[in-house]
Write a structure and sequence with these properties.
Length: 154
């Protein structure tokens, strides 16, 4: 097993080693300047890959791309704390390339941070556009959790 594969395997949480049925894995992508992951992870009943690291590197990027290719689902959570534009491009590319495994959640509020009116209307237009690809789109972490947990294998 390559070093990259070993590192990726360590970054993916797994259920008990005695688990007979392999559970789906969801990648947690999107806004990094937020605590949404800390709120979301404890509610998951499936495996997850968290790409957030203290120091981003080329190896981190390679691990993330490998995970995106092998995850059962790739979740993109966008919040008003999103500072850059790459997450939007990444989310859109995923929606076009793999709509069946792309899940999008756009939060209107993130610990008191909200979109300005013109941003909110633009976000709604993005959601309508992406919905045409067949992706699952949610407005709350609770609805997202419910959908993903429903994918758990018996």
């Amino acid at each position: 097993m390559s070093t990259l594969s070993q590192a990726l395997r360590l970054r993916i949480s797994t259920e008990s080693e005695n688990e007979e049925v392999a559970q789906p894995t969801v990648g947690l992508f999107g806004t990094i300047q937020s605590t949404w992951r800390e709120q979301f992870i404890p509610t998951l009943q499936i495996n997850h890959y968290n790409p957030v690291v203290e120091e981003w590197s080329m190896e981190s990027q390679q691990q993330e791309e490998a995970a995106k290719a092998t995850n059962d689902f790739n979740l993109y959570v966008i919040t008003p704390k999103q500072q850059g534009f790459y997450a939007f491009a990444e989310m859109t590319a995923s929606a076009i390339r793999n709509p069946e495994k792309t899940v999008i959640t756009i939060l209107e509020d993130d610990d008191g941070a909200v979109y300005e009116e013109h941003q909110a209307s633009s976000i709604e237009a993005v959601k309508r556009l992406l919905a045409d690809t067949g992706v699952k789109i949610f407005d709350t972490l609770a609805d997202t959790t419910q959908y993903l947990n429903d994918q758990k294998k018996a």
